[in-house]
Structures are given as structure tokens and as C-alpha cells.
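task queued by scheduler; priority normal; single chain, no ligands, no partner chains; default sampling; output format set to C-alpha cells
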Amino acid sequence: MTQDILITTQGQAGRITLNRPDALNALSYEMCLAIEEALLAWRRDPDVALVIIEGAGDRAFCAGGDISEMYRTGTAGEYEYGRQFWRDEYRLNAFMASYPKPIVSFLHGFTMGGGVGVGCHGSHRIVCETSQIAMPECGIGLVPDVGGTYLLASAPGRLGEYLGLTATRMKSGDAIYAGFADRFVPQDEWELLKAALITTGDVTAIEEYSAPAPESELAKRQDQINRYFGGERLGDILNGFVAMPSDFADASLKVLKRNDPLAMGATLEILHRLRMGTPTIEKALELEYRFTHRAHEDGDFLEGIRAAIIDKDRSPQWTRKLEALPLVDVSKMLRPIPGIKLQFHQEETAMKIGFIGLGNMGGHMARNLASAGHQVTGFDTADVSIEGVSKAGTAVEAAKGMDVVITMLPNGAILRAVADEILPVMSAGAVFADCSTVDVDSARAVAEQAQALGVMPVDAPVSGGVGGADAGTLTFMVGGSAEAFDKTKPLFDIMGQKAVHCGPSGNGQAAKICNNMILGVTMIATCEAFALADKLGLDRQAMFDVVSTSSGASWSINAYCPAPGVGPTSPSDNDYKPGFAAELMLKDLRLSQDAASSADADTPMGQLAAEQYRQFVEDEDGQGRDFSAMLPRFVSRRRS
């Protein structure tokens, strides 16, 4: 072990040297633990002002993690070694990102994978003429990890998608432009700079030795990268290559064809989730670990290592097809892991949460909160059991003494009745978060009642359906005070990918009904267009390929296409079994029209959509079907 890593204190610096030059300083599990131990010891050592981390030899700072042992144990069906490695490594990555003293990394030669984790999260990241930084994990059946998705999600435009999917190597100017490095210092100045840091303990010495960074080639191609890698899903990016042929598109597609489709699909999903919310390294690592935890057993990680490292035939046999990656497979890889939560050195205190309404949505949401380490007590009028959630006999029992009480209820009348029961027993200063979709008047009435009793109310309806509740990808539209929002946001981040504070109480419900009015109208328009295309003799796949990459693109066609066998997997591919039931869309459209009437707002398209869904649900066969089942309805109808 002493030969693999050298840890010393010199002058005012702690110095860590990765010392496996023949293995390109690949990071072993023992090296990770040794780095963490040193950083913990130096954190409060008054004699250590800063930390230097470097790699021995001329070829690499650190070309990745040592994955040979993961392959040996994984092929034997022993998955815990790899999972423990990742948990401890990710704890180290987060620790380095929040370390209270400067960490100066010298990134010469190859810095890849695990090397990014120990080299690119510190406060001062130095590159030189030989630097080549990349995240090549999709080529071996993994997502970019060790906090790499945090850096990728923070890169300009769609550069993160491009770098994550293609593993393009960044030279020094590119690395600085993309946010993986900070300063360019010519390599022949490095020893002088290190000596100055050791002697003074002052990172301002870096300024003296810095030189202008070389021009970034990635910056020159930014517009092109944005154009081709701006798709929501992997299929959208592939469609763009076809719709806009070019040498760049051909070269990019050639790389994507070599990589694992599942890993690339999950990489895109992680980046989009991070970018839609407020990216943090902890949230990035949590999402990455959901994938890596399952990578041996449910992914193609072992096959990727075999092809790249063991047999070196460079011909991995991936289990999913690039052109037909099931979205459900991506969703499964990124679901919270029951009973497991990454432990960081600055761990948040678990909250006591009451959850009332454990139906199709609420049950998944409560489970995800419990999986994240919170103490969740649930109640539902039906006798349901949710993994990790303690049962309460009444709503009052579920609410008493809790830090936060969350409700997921069918309508405003039931919300008012439940509020009458639980608000008087809730602790002063606790938060009452209603995630139901109800009328604005009910939301505001309950908020006033809560405030009068010293409880902080938020109305936080959700978008994303049962699949989003299960996968933890909901969007929350939140009304209430800034203080209440700040207290509940960590919970929204567990249950979803984005939470938007929309203003005072009732504004969350207002945002939800406006959003779903748009959704109802656009789904009808999408179904009408497909039915028209059929009758004009236009192939549905051609219709999708054009519209999904043109001005007619929308969530209704790109992510939830109502035409079976076209686009990403959706309820239309499952005989329209509901992901979001037509009767729920009717409820939301009626709420929008009630609100429009109350506010004296003219919403003719919303009114027409509400009437169309009323006919579909009440007079036809729409009850119990997905709201996208409007398509076969229009296909069978003639112009009146």
C-alpha cells in the first residue's frame, strides 16, 4: 500500500502522490480510503494550510479506477465489493468538493473516470500541455460517475451530454472551458509552483505561475453541439443525426454505436434531472449510485469490462439496442434503492414525516422518502403496506409530532376534511405540504387555517404521473412562504427532479392547472395530427421523426407519443393502460375552467379540451384508459 500512494506533510502542505505510474495511477479501493483518512486528519490540523494532490510518472494523473477486482468479484456473483467501493469513493468525492481548505490538483496526462473524482472537485485544478481529461464510462456499461455528472450538468449548453456520451478527451483549454479545470500552468513551472505552495501555504501563488489557456476547440463547436445533443432522450439525439446529416453527426453516431445504450440513456436522464433542479454534487452522486449499485446485476458493466479490459476484443455485446432503448429500463436503473442512502461527511438530519394518502402516487413517494433515510409514518383509509413506512391507525396519529406532514388526496373537499382533523394536533413550526391536485380556493382556505394554528402551509401539486412517483422524477409546483419551501425542498429533491417556488399559497395549484391545461390541449392536437396523417397516407414513424425534431415538438409527442410503436415507450404501447388516466385529465381541465371562471379569464381552447375529455370519459370508452387514448378515438371518427 505504501508503494501505491505517498502521503506526507511538507511545510504548510499535505501532499498526496498517486504512485502507480505503470498502471497510469489507477485508483484502488485502498487508495481511496487512504486519501479520505489523510483529508480527515488534515481538516483541522493548523499546520496544514492546503493540500496538493498529484500523480507519479509522465503519462497520467489518474486514468481511472482499478476495476479488475470488480470484474473478478462480479463474475462470481459477489456484487457487494463493487457497491462498497462506490459508496466509499463517492463519499470521498463529495468530501473533496466541500473541503474547508484549498485542494490543488495537478492534472497532467490522462485524467479519466476515478481520476476526475479525486482531481476535479477540489478548489484549484491545474492543467498543462499534456492534459487529457475525459469521462469514458458509457464505453464500459457505466454512467459517468464519481460526481462527473455534476460537472457535466454544469458545463455550457449541451456540452455535458456530448462529453458524457462520446467520451471526447478535453485538452487543457477545453477542460477549463467545460468547468473541469481552473488554471493553465506550463508543466515546466509545476515544481516551482509546488515549492511555493509548500513554503507559503498560500494559493495566490498560482496566479504568478499561470499562463493564458490554449484556445478551446469545444467552444468553437458549442453551437453545433447544442444543436445535435439537445434532445430529451437518446432517440431524439439519434433522430437529429438523421434529420441534419453532417460530418459531425456521422462521427458522433459512430461513437454512440460503440457505447452501451442503457448507460447513455441513463446518463442523459441524470444530466437532465440535475439541470432541471439545482445541481449539487450530493444529488449527482445519489443518482449515479442508483445506477452503479445495479450495474453488475441489471446492466452491462461486466460485459463492458470484459470487452475493454479482460479480453480486449473491443466488441461488447450490449443487451439493449441503441435504436430501441426501453425508457422503463432507464427508469428502473435510476429508482431509489430501498434501505440504502449514501453517507456523506456532512449528513443532513433525518426528518419525521407523516404521509396521508398512500395510493398509486403517494405510496411511491412515501417509499422514496423512507429509502432516503427519513422516518416516515403513513396512513391511508385502505389498509396498505409500504416498504420502510410505519403504519398509523388514523390521520391524527400520522400527523402528531411530525416535522412535515404530506397529503396526497383525491379532491379539495377531502383535503379540507383532513386538514380539520390534523392541523390542530400538528406542532407549531411544522410544515403541512399538500401534494394533491385541488381547486385553488381549497388550497388557500387550508393555508389560512394552518397559518392561524402556527403551521407552515405549502401547496405542492406534482407532474409526472405514477411512473414519475415511482422513479423519483416528479416536478413540484409549490405555493407558500420561502421558509416553508426551503424546509421541504430537500424532500422534493428526493421525490422528484425539480421543485419550483411559484409564490404565495395557492400558486402551486394555479401553476399545476395551467400546466395541465396546456398538456390536455396539446395531447388532443397531437392525436388529431396523427389521425390526419393516417388519412393522408403519411407513415406514423415518418410523422414522428419530422415533428419530434421540428417546431411541432412537444412533451406529448417526444416523451409520451400516443401512437403505438412510435417514439419512446409509453402507455400507447401497453394498450393505453393509464399512466395518467383520462378521468384525471378531465378533473384537472375542469379545475382550470373553474379557476378561469373565478378569475374572469378567457380560455376557449381549455374549455374545448375539457368538453372533449368529458365526452371521452362520460359518453364513450375513456374511463380507465390513458389520456393519450384520444388517438384511436380520432382515428375512428369522421369530420362532422
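post-processing summary
- The chain has a mean pLDDT of 93.
- The two ends are 81 Å apart (CA to CA).
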